[in-house]
Amino acid sequence: MVAFDCDGTLFSKHGCISEYGLEILHEMRNRNIRVVICTGRPLYSIRNTMPEGSYDYAVCENGQTVAKADGTIIDRKRNLNPEEIREITSKCEKYRVMMSCAYDDEFHHFTSRRHHLYVSSIQHLKNIARRMLGRRLWSDDMDSDYARLAHYDISKICFTGIPSVLRKLAASFDSEKYSILFTSPGWLEIQPYGISKGAGLRKLMETEQIERDQCAAVGDGENDLSMIIEAGTGVAMKNAMSTVKDAADMITEYSCTEDGAVRWVNDHILQKHS
Fold this sequence. Notes:
Elements: E1 2-4, H1 19-30, E2 35-38, H2 43-49, E3 57-60, E4 65-68, E5 73-76, H3 82-89, E6 98-103, E7 106-110, H4 116-133, E8 157-160, H5 163-171, E9 178-184, E10 187-192, H6 197-208, E11 216-219, H7 225-230, E12 233-236, H8 242-247, E13 250-251, H9 260-270
Parallel strand pairs: 1-2, 1-11, 2-3, 11-12, 12-13
Antiparallel strand pairs: 3-4, 4-5, 6-7, 6-8, 8-10, 9-10
């Protein structure tokens, strides 16, 4: 079994997997190697992004949902409750950040009215850079009515902004009440306590009766740490955060833009066991 994070790992460019990446995944499955997509994205996003037949399982929303490739739910943890949502969203009043969350199968962006001009201007500048790189654009006109979010089913709330501000924001949360996860220095995710990719991967290892030494996990962000530690072989991307590299058993020779994750699989698994 091999578990892959998506953004910054399996997805090479423009938020999708390359043709070479798909070839490697299909070869893995042909050899009876279970392919697990282990991501912070919601399940609907993975089912819309990953082609049919390219993977066996998905651990989504950092472990909130564990499902088969056909969408059958194997395990589902609780969402944030209304009190937690109100506490988390209130941070927008103090910190100049963009807040994002998924509901109704769409991703929505928010900021406070007092920070709206600053945050929307920053997002506009980022979108100029994204357009030049051919990447998907984010909304730079955020909603400020985040009080209504307490009425929705929300699994996690994300913040993006200046890394130093996000670190202060992360420190303001109770670590015994929430799972506080950085997917990159500029992206912070808050979920109910105890949710992790590692727990989701462990559930699948038990389901498939696969031992730790038969499992590898590849990732780049701090939200990947739990699965990298859980797997028998933890692999950090060349472009991974330093904390992930420190925890991993191996580091890929190539970055995500160079198909580093699947090239590692080809070199260290497929070619060695051909």
